[in-house]
Amino acid sequence: MHVQNKHDVNFVITCTGFSQVLISTCLCWLRVPERIQYKIAVLTYKVLHDTAQRYLGPLDRVADLHGRRALRSASSSRLVVPMIRLSTVGSRTFNVSGPRIWNGLPEDIVSALTFSGVRRRLKPFLFQQSYPDTVI
């Protein structure tokens, strides 16, 4: 095994009979920002399906707002992002960052019916954001 320097350090495995493969690509490792998004998105899914801790609180869907007419977005899984008062801490709370990350995901991920379906679709999506020049 040797180290190859480019923009960042990538570990490379040399296997007999195979070409060199990046370890991060081989193991589907995400970079830190995408890993944080992954954890928050999975936790948001659990909150929406009542399998997370209660203190994380209920998250409101756009379709559940009172006083709204029936819109096309009523069938979507988009969440309400609450307004924040403190710009230093407010945007980092789960009640704000969870819906913000959830709303940024493609519809096929947020509309998945099972927890494993969300995880199976979410990881490649975030991996593609983390390593845009890598083909999965």
Summarize the structure.
By secondary structure, this protein is mainly α. It has 5 helices and 3 strands. Residues 1-21 have low confidence and may be disordered.
What does this structure look like?
This protein folds into 2 domains: 1-29, no CATH class; 31-130, no CATH class. Helix 2 (32-48) crosses helix 3 and helix 2 packs antiparallel against helix 5 (115-130). It contains 5 helices and 3 strands. Strand 1 and strand 2 (9-13) form a beta hairpin. Strands 1-2-3 form a 3-stranded antiparallel sheet. The model is unreliable at 1-21 (pLDDT under 50). The longest helix is centred in the N-terminal third of the chain and has 17 residues, at 32-48. 38% of the residues lie in helices and 8% in strands. It has helices spanning 23-26, 32-48, 94-103, 107-110, 115-130; strands spanning 2-5, 9-13, 21-22. With 136 residues, it is mostly helical. The protein is globular.
